[in-house]
Design brief:
The complex is a heterodimer of chains A (about 375) and B (about 375). Chain A is α/β, with parallel strands linked by helices and about 375 residues long. Chain A is built from 14 helices and five strands. Chain B has about 375 residues and is α/β, with parallel strands linked by helices. The chains are: A alpha/beta (about 375), B alpha/beta (about 375).
Chain lengths: ~375, ~375
Amino acid sequence: MIVSKAYLKILKKLIPSLFIFVAVTVFFTVLSVKDTSKSEAFIPVNPNVLLVNLDEDSKIIDNFKDYLSKKTKLTVVKEIPKDIDDAIFFEDYKEVIYLNKGFTKSFQNKKLEQIDIKNSNSYSSIMTDMVINNYLNRLNYYLELGLSEDEVINSLNRTFNEKSEVSILKDVDTNQLVGLGVFYKILNYTFISNSIYFIAFILNKFNEEKRKNRQLVSKTPFKKILNRLFICNSLFTIGLWFLFVVISLLLLGSIAYSKYGLWMMITSFVFIINCMSLGFLVASLVKKEEPINMIQNIYGLATSFLCGAFVPVMYLPKFVVAIAKVFPSYWYVDTIDFITKSDLKEGSSFIYIGQNLLVITIFTIVFYLVTQYVNKRKV
Amino acid sequence: MFRHNFKYILKVLLKSKEMIFWVAVFPLILSTLFYMAFSNLDNSTSFKKVDVVVVNNTYLEKNPYYKESLKRLQENDILNIKYLGKDEGIKLLDDDIYAVIEFEDKAKIHTKFNGVEQTLVKNVVDQIYEYSEIYKITLEKYAKEGKKIDSNLMMETAVKISKDINFLNNISKKQVNPIVLSYYTVLAMTAIYGATIGLFVINTFNANKSKIGLRMEVIPSHKLKLILSGISAAFLVLSTILLIAFLYLKFVLGIEFGDVLFINILLLLFNGGLAGLSIGVLVGVLLKKNLEVQIGIVISITMVFSVMAGMMGYSIKRLIDTSFPLLNKINPVNLISDGFYSLYYFDDLNRFYSNNWYLVAITIFSTLITYFIARRKNYDSI
């Protein structure tokens, strides 16, 4: 009881840090999951485009605007905004189209000229280039064919009628599912940081020379004290996991209760146990409090950046992915990614998840064995 | 005395492991992590083929035109196509295939998620179907004109329709890579982490904070001289760290800083470093807590400032710049990183100088407050 009380006393002092981690996790989840709107149907990811119309309004410009508003999130202005370069750099707009004076005239004269654009050189802006060029090529073709102004506009409308439909083959809201995946991936940093910081910090306090001497001469056997500390840390870890599961339920709603949510919960539980064993390992290696903060930050950030928690694995260089495989975080993030993508209907899906969870468990056992070895050497 | 004290503080600073870690080592580790994680991002965001499966059905066999268009899309590096059965294709959606396309009277695209790639596939498929409509319109026009439609005319029409002219004149600035902002913020964070060095120095001279401070209080030398020697040593250490960090980013990681004069980089770095030191000294005078707590507070606030300046995503900086501009005008980390951004992105130096003036204002403001608080400080007489 005395051990638990002392544990709680130290833990209480650290609670404000926990709140910071909760706030940071929620903040980055909300920021990363820009669109959690319900959508079981396909919603095209249209780029933000700014059309600066410096010409007079005309039928052809209206038609161009109509076309663009179907293919992009279009904003039309009559003057060039002041901070346009900032807006492009920070990708407020993936593309800015300048319709200079004389655009309508060149259309009426049946001699289309090039139009000026500025873009952020991103994937979306290249796609937007294709969309705009497609319109102008069609327009040019109809002009060369010798159609009248009204005929050109009618023909363009006929041409750009949608001819395909997209079906989403997932049985859940995909936007929310992606959001749930992001939340659980960010937990990689949260779990590692909290486990190392709290467990190592508290155990370090118990290992301070004066405290340790008192423990050694007390009535309670030292082994019992260690067991109590282990139970306290386990309860803290489970509590921490439970807290973030509840946050996921509150933040992301029904998707967190689905089979996908359930499997992510299981995966995160296996992972947080791994983080706990890492916390014990750090506590056994470190003698002072200061390095705990350094280790927590470096290991937490390194695994989050290199293992795909902050940047998707598909964007990481191959050599980084190869390095990442030696960290349990890689297998955790890979499992979350797999759950997001898979339908979780076939046996092979569960075998894949099972294998990854086994790898994380093996890491946990290794951390535990190394901790035991270090502690024995200390004695 | 100045020289002796300068040397002494320099030695003490260089031996402070925790401080050296946070000011010198941590930013280098963080920027290396950024580099490892982001180095591919620039290539990844530029265009790459989208992997799709096209269902090999009878409709596609009967309309060789569609197959021809798909072939062209593959040749133009837009799509990477596998021809398979529908079920086989749908199974591959669990892997790296973005969409399964089924050509019928109206094309069906099967996918699992909303995304840019899926949107591109839809646009491309719509464009393939546009051709048949253009043919129809062309034939209607020929019929109206009473033209004889033979194979030659059809061939000529097909060539005209497929003609792809570039109607876009790209007038963008050449350098657009928002990821550089993360690195600039790391450098800015390092400068403001210099506040911990300022804290260390001011705590060393405070009689109620350290034993050294007690001794300093009774030595026969002007206190201002002592503090100046300490601050000079701190500035030397911080400037060296900042210079190493800059050289590491520029020459080891190859981060773009634009085609700018080195003197401008130095001006911004040293100006930022001075602001960091002066903030540290001010915090040291204002807070009565011990050095560890003061360092903890400074590091946490600097971290928040860094996030606001765009270290963890440029969208946060943009959000604050547009919604709460004043907040980033008093954020020293943002002023430094924005200074680097303006050197990298803009041709004129107006914004760069404006950022520097704000930093000078922060330094003067912090120093003045420190001065007024410090001169009123009294210790109990015994």
